[in-house]
Structures are given as C-alpha cells and as structure tokens.
Fold this sequence. Notes:
It is built from 21 helices and 9 strands. By secondary structure, it is α+β, with helices and mostly antiparallel strands.
Amino acid sequence: MGARCSKFSFCWWHSHFKSSVLQSSDLENEEKNALPSFCEYSFEDLKIATNGFSSDNIVSEHGEKAPNVVYRGRLHNGRWIAVKRFNKSAWPDTRQFLDEAKAVGNLRSERLANLIGCCCEGEERLLVAEFMPNDTLAKHLFHWENQPMKWAMRLRVALYLAQALEYCSSKGRALYHDLNAYRVLFDQDCNPRLSCFGLMKNSRDGKSYSTNLAFTPPEYLRTGRVTPESVVYSFGTMLLDLLSGKHIPPSHALDVIRGKNFLMLMDSCLEGHFSNDDGTELVRLATRCLQYEARERPNAKSLVTSLLSLQKETEVPSCVLMGIPHGTASPGEALLLTPMGEACLRMDLTAIHEILEKAGYKDDEGIANELSFQMWTNQMQETLNSKKQGDAAFRAKDFTTAIDCYTQFIDGGTMVSPTVYARRCLGYLMSEMPQEALADAMQAHVVSPEWPTAFYLQATSLFILGMDNEAQEALKDATKYENKRNKN
C-alpha cells in the first residue's frame, strides 16, 4: 500500500513564522530536512487517498485547453496531499513525464507547494504535491468574505512569490507556465506559496497560458514560447492584482499609470492604509515588469531586493494579517459534533472505548468475506477464537491481550473486519502507541471508506500526535459521513 520511497514519518512538520522575513537561501536548507524525498506512488495508493477520486474531493478543474483535475487526498500516514490527474491524452511520453516530475520534485522551498511524488501507470499520469488548506490568492483577493487582504499581507505575497521565482531560477527552473492568482496557495500558517504544478512543462495538449489573451506576455502571442522574461511579465500582472484587488488587463492599467493617476488603480478597501510612496514604488515595479520589450524587465533577484525594502509588520504572523485563526478555532465551534466527535476532540479514550463497545460489530455488515469450506473447518475456527478472545480482553480493558488477539485475527487473513482494526487502534492509543493506532485507523478507512468511526479514530490519533490541522480535517470528514448516514 505504501509509496515506493523511504519509510514514512508520522510527524508532519509544523512551519513557524520567523521573526523577520526569510531569504530564499534559508528556506532551502529548512525544507530539505522537512519533506520526504520525491517518490513514485501506485495508482491504488492515490485512489485510496482520494476516496476513489471522489467528486467531493475535487479542489479545482481545468477545461479543454489544459485538461486535468486536482483532488484533495490523505495518505496512509495522515499526510494531506493535492493530486493532479491528467486526462489520458496528456503526457503520452512516459519517460518525459517521469523526468519532468523528478526534476521538479527535487526542488524544496518553503515558498513552494512542493511536489512530493507522481504516478505513471498505464495511461494514468498523476502529480502529488503538498496540500495547501487555505485557498488561493484569487479567493482572498477577488472573492473575500470576511475582510479584504491588508496592505502588509499584499506586500508579503509579492515578496514570497518573488522569492519562489528566484529560488526556481537558481535551480535551473526559471520557466513557469501561466503564473496567475490561482497558482498562489496559502498553507496552514496562511503563508503564500507558489504551486509547483506550473513548473512542469506543458503537456502535448496543454497550453502555457490558459488565461485571457489580454494578460499574456506580448512575446508569447508572437512566438507561443515561455521565457524567463515572460514569467516576470506575469508577475507584473499579479502586482496589479494585489494593488487593485481586481484582475485588470495590463494595457488598461498602463494607460492609467501613464496618466500619472495611479490612485485610480488602488483597491478602495485600502484607502488610508498605505503611504503614497509605497503605492508609487509598487506601481513603478509593476510597470517595469510589464515592459513590452522583454529585455527591459527586471529579473527575479532584482524583484526580491526591491520588495524586501517595502515590507511592513514583519513580526506579525500571516494568519493574523489574514484574520484566519491558526490552530485555535475548535472544530466544535463550526461543527455539531456527535458524542464520538466530542470524545475525539477531548482525546477521551475511555469514552471512545464505551462507544465502540456499545456499537459492537454492526458496521461490519456488508463487508465481503469469501471463505472456502476448508477455511471454515480449520483456519477459520482459530481465527474466530482469536477474535472472541480479543473481544473479551477489550471489554475487560486488557488492551495488551486485545492487541495480541486482534493481531492474530488480522494476520490469519481469512476475514476482514473494520471493527477489529478500530478496536486494535484504540488498544494502541491506550498503550501510548499513536503511530500504530493511526495506521489501523487508516486501514479501517480502506476497508470501509465512508465509515465515520474510521475518521473519528484518525482524528484522535492525529490529535495525540500533535497534528492538529490534519486532525480537525479528519473530524470534519467524520461529521460529514455521520450526517450523511443519519439522512439515509
């Protein structure tokens, strides 16, 4: 079931905001130690992770010009991932796809939503990246609900994006396809990151620019090719987005700028929250990026230098600037939790034990167990005895014996029971073995993909492991499936 890569770790790193804005060189060293090496996943791994590529897990879709779908998923070790699945006609050359994916997968920066793996089986072509839980720049800039993005945060987005481009350039990946506000994602700390998907060369049927032609670099319209200078032009269009809070065509914006009335460009929500000098400097930088002649545009390193001097409120974490609680909002505030959900949130293992014991094995109904007559007469009886002894120990709260007996039942291989995995999971939790518990909770999910208890136990294991963001997502899934079950 696991990926063909180094042994997985359950301790997903927690990035922390530094007291000052980080330079790209610092980020590279940090990330090398934080993420697993790039590896190839089996199609079955990714099918399980995305719950059969369920439409409920679709994050984004693209049309005929660049046919692909991005799904949210979770691996067996609890890591959240984004899975980009291309259509069958994309990337016909297997070797080209693998070479490209591995080259991008070697990059590691805290400014990127890094590529951590791929899958190339038969006609399937999939990319696997870190999952970013806090939406896109487009959502926060153009479609905000609670508050407009603050000036200091807009400056930070511009800098972090420039640092991402500088890092990629320094690693020989200066070309980025279709840089736009949908390609900038926000991580669990609400720090902006550049999606790694745009670093892949476009597939046979893809286009480098899927956005409106009014926003594409002039030279791309002439030659159909992306150059490093084209990427800087697109960066300029994003500076306009950050200034205005709208997606303004560059030609219109440049006309306003030439008329020396740049305040007409500024987002009205920012009025009184920035100095004219800062606004003028950002407009000047955008104008340089949008020069018609590619050679007159600045490079990524020059952009970083210019933007560093403009930063504001560098001591304030991004989640505070964005107004998004970081690990402090209780899922119970947003969800109507069941008794099981409340017990998971409290990590009340005694209450979970009572609930599991009362539920019995009713959730095993419908699980296919095809057994030969020979199995019934020999091995089956031993297997059933192991389960019976395990249940007796589980009721008596003798969790060491319960684990041993349930392990014999599972290793017997004659029957599959999600409830046994759930009970052994709790036994591991009671025995202070949360990593083993998480593996069992994930296995219960594999056997019974929409069983709320499997998600509840994942949440409990993740809470105990200190992976609060992942635990809260599992709790949301548990509540969703519980509600779905109650409606049926």
